[in-house]
Design brief:
single chain; alpha/beta; Rossmann fold; seven-stranded mixed sheet; two-stranded antiparallel ribbon
Length: 312
């Protein structure tokens, strides 16, 4: 189905949006109306208010083919975020495409936990410091940065932080680089590193990191086939799947983190709820003095916090 008028008459913004919603609904998409509005905003360059005010004005003739192309991709099952080409994470508008995982709401909780852990050990928080970026007083690392979501959220909120963002995927780092370029001043304090977990970092950072944050792959190989098709068929396999057990990446990061952290340093890791107990045990075995699990917005155990020193 196309959004063009069957009789070839010029169509209004409202008619095109309604037809897009019909096509998405016919493809089984539950949030068809909302998604049709988002796709129309993308194609038109108009925001929601402008589209409401102009609803009965005739749209330019190029609008229907542009909208049809996006609707066709979405109706074929591609995630909305990839079709739009960008998505919001923690107030940042990030480019996303199939080279990177789509940043998730539960990862915003990970960002908040990481920022609050740093505040707890003395970091300043705030987005509007005119002098930020001139000097950094501590260093943090986001391992497996993908789109750069966690690294950029930390850089934006913590004006004194130098942030390393690493990934073993060069394709993901290309997107992270684009997002640094589009994020203005805080990105000046973010550096990218390619490689396998801590191997992507310069050796002189050993023992110097105040915080390591990561949302590593944590799906088991056998679970991949059971993921929703939108995830399974479109998001990068290596961003989702860790290995036979799902715990491989978590185990490596937990085991190696103490050697890279300052004595007061903290590890903050996203995980699946069923991995929480094992991850805590792994952290205790690696020498972390204090471990706890935080919950996401739906109350599921999602974030490991492991501190090197008991009070710190
Ligand atoms: C679940 S995604 C997280 C992406 C992003 N941090 C986020 O939260 O949206 C995991 C990321 O880890 C990267 N990755 C997987 N294995 C890795 C490894 N051994 N070393 C470094 N990065 C790895 C993947 O390429 C992917 O970008």
């Amino acid at each position: 189905m196309t959004t063009a008028d069957p009789a070839g008459r010029p169509a209004t913004w409202r008619e095109l949006t309604d037809r897009a919603a019909d096509a998405l609904r016919a493809a089984g998409i539950e949030t068809a109306e909302m998604e049709a509005r988002w796709l129309m905003e993308e194609v038109s360059g108009l925001d929601r208010l402008e589209l409401t005010v102009e609803a009965d004005a005739v749209a330019p003739s190029r609008t229907a083919p542009g909208l049809d192309a996006l609707v066709a991709r979405r109706a074929a099952g591609e995630p909305l975020q990839y079709v739009l080409g960008h998505w919001d994470f923690h107030g940042l508008d990030l480019a996303v495409d199939p080279r990177v995982l789509i940043p998730r709401p539960e990862t915003e909780v990970v960002a908040e936990v990481a920022i609050s852990e740093l505040e707890r050990i003395g970091a300043r928080r705030g987005r509007s410091d005119a002098w930020s970026g001139a000097l950094t007083t501590f260093t943090v690392a986001d391992l497996g940065t993908g789109s750069g979501a966690l690294a950029l959220a930390l850089a934006a909120e913590l004006p004194d932080a130098a942030v390393w963002a690493t990934d073993r995927s060069e394709a993901a780092l290309a997107i992270a680089r684009a997002n640094l370029a589009g994020s203005g001043q805080p990105a000046v304090r973010v550096r990218l590193g390619a490689g396998w977990w801590f191997e992507a970092l310069p050796r002189e950072l050993r023992g110097e990191l105040r915080l390591v944050v990561s949302n590593p792959p944590y799906v088991a190989e056998s679970e991949h086939a059971e993921l929703p098709p939108e995830v399974r068929d479109h998001e990068p396999y290596d961003a989702l799947v860790s290995g036979p057990s799902g715990l491989e990446s978590i185990a490596v990061i937990v085991e190696q983190a103490p050697e890279w952290l300052e004595p007061e340093g903290v590890l903050v890791l996203e995980l699946a709820p069923h991995q929480a107990d094992t991850a805590r045990s792994l952290a205790a075995a690696a020498g972390f003095a204090h471990t706890e699990i935080r919950k996401d917005l739906s109350g599921r155990e999602r974030v490991l916090v492991a501190r090197r020193s008991p009070g710190g």
